[in-house]
Specification:
The chain is of the alpha+beta class. Helices cover 58% and strands 14% of the residues. It comes from Selenomonas caprae. InterPro entries: HAMP_dom (IPR003660), HATPase_C_sf (IPR036890), HATPase_dom (IPR003594), His_kinase_dom (IPR005467), HisK_dim/P_dom (IPR003661), HisK_dim/P_sf (IPR036097), Sensor_HK_Regulatory (IPR050736), Sig_transdc_His_kin-like_C (IPR004358).
Length: 325
């Protein structure tokens, strides 16, 4: 008995130890399984979500987002994917807007071409038919044909000019010049048009504006802005050109006191496929697009402020030629 009882106690102790070991192992496995599940949900599930979003992007559904906000590498990757989706969505909207603007532009151009062509054909058929016998009446119809031919010539010319300026291979002859001289010459060339409408054009340029640029194109830029200002001014109104320089920069404004531009149209007036047609029966709707292309080629910032019934101000600003400072 003295030997048997300790052995039995040892067996019981060993059995309890084994049982505790088994329980501990099972609990460890259970905890490991739970931990693995949590880690899987933390690391694998976000990867599956990012994969699903990437597939959505491949199907042009750029509005999908991962919705992951983890503060780790996976969260950073998810953020990059979400930002990529935002950029793709913005690019898609811009592409759709550009396509719509192009369609609107082509529709407007088709209308502009069709109208003078229809008038030309009708007038020519009338003259050929011999129904018009009086010389004065024939002269009136011939004058009408010349006016419509001028419209077509101006439209085609603007289309070619805009296409040329938008061609990356098109270069301008950049030389040192005084922008003030180009402005004064542009103002002189627009005077007959302004005088015909009883609109006064005033130029206030006290200092020279040395820049590097293409003289003819800079003159064309100012002519476009002045022509636009005169066109939308009423008889007796004034179009003002002001220029100033400060340190290493300059600014030129062309301001009229005409009908102004609607707030809804203002953000789009320089767009190549947007035309403001109100009160612009003689325009092609491409003048300001050409002006912006010329300004961009010279590194000149061009902006516009306007209020209907008050007037419009175009603002040109750029850097003075460094060698003259």
């Amino acid at each position: 008995m003295l030997i048997h009882r300790p052995l039995q106690e040892m067996r019981q102790t060993l059995s309890e130890g084994l049982r505790l070991l088994v329980i501990s192992v099972l609990l460890g496995l259970l905890l490991a399984g739970i931990l693995a599940l949590l880690l899987t949900r933390r690391f694998i599930a976000p990867l599956y979500r990012m994969q699903a979003v990437a597939r959505s992007f491949a199907q042009a559904r750029y509005d999908e987002r991962t919705g992951i906000s983890q503060q780790d590498e996976i969260g950073m990757l998810a953020g990059d994917i979400d930002r990529l989706g935002g950029r793709l969505e913005a690019a898609r909207q811009e592409r759709e807007q550009l396509t719509q603007q192009r369609q609107d532009f082509l529709s407007a151009i088709s209308h502009e071409l069709r109208t003078p062509l229809t008038v030309l054909r009708g007038t020519a058929e009338l003259l050929v038919s011999g129904l018009v016998t009086h010389e004065a009446e024939r002269g009136k119809y011939l004058h009408q044909m010349m006016e419509n031919l001028s419209v077509l010539e101006r439209l085609v010319g603007d289309l070619l000019e805009l296409s040329r300026l938008q061609n990356p291979g098109f270069t301008m002859e950049m030389t040192p010049l005084d922008f003030r001289e180009a402005i004064q010459e542009a103002a002189g060339s627009i005077q007959p048009v302004a005088a015909a409408k009883a609109v006064e054009v005033t130029v206030k340029l006290s200092e020279s504006l040395p820049v590097a640029g293409d003289y003819g194109r800079l003159r064309q830029l100012v002519v476009i802005l002045l022509d636009n200002a005169v066109k939308f001014s009423a008889a007796g109104q004034t179009v003002e050109i002001r220029g100033q320089r400060e340190l290493d920069s300059w600014q030129v404004t062309v301001e009229d006191h005409g009908c102004g531009i609607a707030a809804a149209d203002l953000p789009y007036i320089f767009d190549r496929f947007h035309a403001r047609r109100e009160n612009n029966a003689q325009g092609t709707g491409m003048g300001l697009a050409i002006a912006r292309e010329i300004a961009d080629r010279h590194g000149i910032a061009i902006a516009c402020t306007s209020e209907q019934g008050v007037g419009t101000r175009f603002i040109l600003s750029g850097r003075l030629l460094a060698e003259t400072l």
